[in-house]
Structure prediction request, 381 residues.
Amino acid sequence: MRKGARVWIIALGVIGVLFGCGQQGTDGAIRIGVAGPFTGNAAAFGEMIKKGAELKRDTINAAGGIGGRPIELVFGDDVGDPKEASTVATKFATDRSIVAVVGHFNSSCSLAGKPIYKREGVVELSPGSTNVNVCVGSEWTFRNVYRDDFQGQFLARYVKQKLNLKRVAVFYDNDDYGIGLKNAFLEEAQKQGLEIVTAAAYTRETVDFKPELSSIKALNPDALFVSGLYNEAALITLQARQQGLTMQLLGADGVFSPGYVQVAGKAAEGTLITTPFLFDAGGQDARDVLKKFKEKHKEDPDCWAALTYDAVGILADAIAKVGPDRKAIRDHLASMTSPDKAYPGITGKTYFDANGDCVKPAYVSLIKDGRFTSAPVQMLE
Prediction:
């Protein structure tokens, strides 16, 4: 064999290692799973996740894809339910043509899928799961959103230091997300000297909160913090205002959804909500994405669309650098340990600690005229 021919064969072999390890999708596409609540009570989150993922896919493919191969997204509907999440995770993880997964959104769903992704050796990158335990115990699980302990503590400090309020009622969803966030808030509230007049639980899919709100009204708090998702938070907000409760309403990122305003209507006005990202605070890249999103969907994207946009980008960037190999992708994400090794997305620089958690700031959004706007007072940490 001629030396030149041998060199070409070796070169082609290297390319094969980088871009031929996984099975191919349609037209040789690189397949990435996207898991989220695309139907069910949390479908408003899923809608934004889907739109954010598709916009990033389209942007990458329009620029030539990865090594000339397009990205193909495979969507898996977990309905926001841990049992369904296990089913979706099993489907994705055992399909060797899927090289990585964006998801899940709900913390309970990410926790349910975690052992499956770990067993099969595929990255799970969540743009929305904030429970402190999501990344614990698996080197295959990452997230590009902050943790609830940070978010809960941040909100307690904001209430005390920026709003100068003293007495707070807490109404929390009795699930992984609601409990974890509530615990973090209560711990920091004690340090800040806030008086917690009550910390009451509710169950997902409850629709009548009037008895609990009557009890809260009698305690006359300065603020009501709803630690849960937008569905119940909207009903709580609406029923609270109907009963004449005038205290400051507070929510966390689970309330940051167009669905909250759609259900609560004018009652949502003035609600303050913590969020991992605000387009108002983003740079030119974020403004460009905002424009493209609005042109395509005739609505504003939320923080979950932005974080999912970046999650797809993080995986695509990893694949471009190390190829569509599951372990190589994991190893690359694990090597992103400092700002100089971070992925520069529209939500800021993303890099990970040893657990797969990321360091991101929190913002506060104010609902004004039916829109999520940047609150006049921020507390960036």
